[in-house]
Description:
- Helices cover 40% and strands 19% of the residues.
- By secondary structure, the chain is an alpha/beta fold.
- The protein folds into 2 domains: 24-139 and 281-306, 3-Layer(aba) Sandwich (Rossmann fold), CATH 3.40.50.2300; 141-278, 3-Layer(aba) Sandwich (Rossmann fold), CATH 3.40.50.2300.
- Strands 1-12-6-5-4-2-3 form a 7-stranded mixed beta sheet, sandwiched between helices. Strands 8-7-9-10-11-13 form a 6-stranded mixed beta sheet, sandwiched between helices.
- Helix 2 (47-63) crosses helix 10, helix 5 runs parallel beside helix 6 (175-188) and helix 7 (206-220) packs across helix 8.
- The longest helix is centred in the N-terminal third of the chain and has 17 residues, at 47-63.
- It is elongated and about 60 Å long.
- 50% of the residues are buried.
- The site of beta-D-fucofuranose (GYE) has 13 residues, from helix 2 and strand 10.
Amino acid sequence: MRQLQRRTFTVILAGAGLAAAWSPLARAQAAGKKLVIGFAQTGAESEWRTANTESVKAAAKAAGHELKFSDAQQKQENQIKAIRSFITQKVDVIILAPLVTTGWDTVLKEAKAAKIPVILESRNVVVKDTSTWTTFIGSDFVEEGRRAAQWLLDNTKNTTGTVNIVELQGTVGSDPAIDRKKGFDEVLKGNARYKVIRSQTGDFTRAKGKEVMEAFLKAEGKKINVLYAHNDDMAIGAIQAIEEAGLKPGKDILVIGVAAVKGAFEAMIAGKMNVSVECNPLLGPQLMEAAAKAAAGQTLPRWIKTIEGVFPAEVAAKEFPNRKY
Ligand code: GYE
């Protein structure tokens, strides 16, 4: 079993940037400056996302910055529009939670030309010119996928025969979906008895998670041993589908989620979910720190990585009171 972490915390990986070259006074001035920040959020697709939005709003308020918030309702074109409007409004910093990895080249170049630093949070991009964004603040999604698979291996090692897995992927083309799949497959590769028999997107939402799980159950029925959902919301939606099909989630079908949000803890305490791999949405304070540095022209590390643990059902009741999201 993986080591458990009672509380989440974050570290800045590397690179003090140009800070060392600055006088203490210049640094204090940069830190104290009130900024106008544009935040192009993906939407409100999950419990994770809601906690993320609240964290950014609260941290901006606490720092005295003005936050211009845009909810893109899970549409990339809305995020692109929001970025362009932030450029027109001459904000000091743009925070982008990119819905998908690709399609950002042009608009990020526009932000760079306007000399507005762009900070990526919670999802990453793939662009030709990587100098168009300053830093990515978020998790190691490949590692999250590996942890999910490792939990499965550890907790099914005393069983025999094929382990049939169905997978609910996140939003198509988003890096948490791509990487959570990659890490999971990587660990199970070479274990021939573990088979992903169905894999489809549930778009990170409860409603879609339920709908797709219904289809999986119709097609595969009792053959399904395990559900791996790329986030807790889809797992929770799927749990309903499993119950409606007359099966016991957590027992007839093992349920693995990602995020470790409160909803997952409730499901684990109720015995309907087996494990949730943590992904911390409370990125607001780090984002504000990075925004101040970026606005002051400092270089940031390319990746400010969140450190996370794994929470199996056995510890859910004990850990629940400590959870902040
Ligand atoms: O896991 C999912 C959300 O980008 C890490 O997006 C984030 C993911 C998170 O909607 O629940």
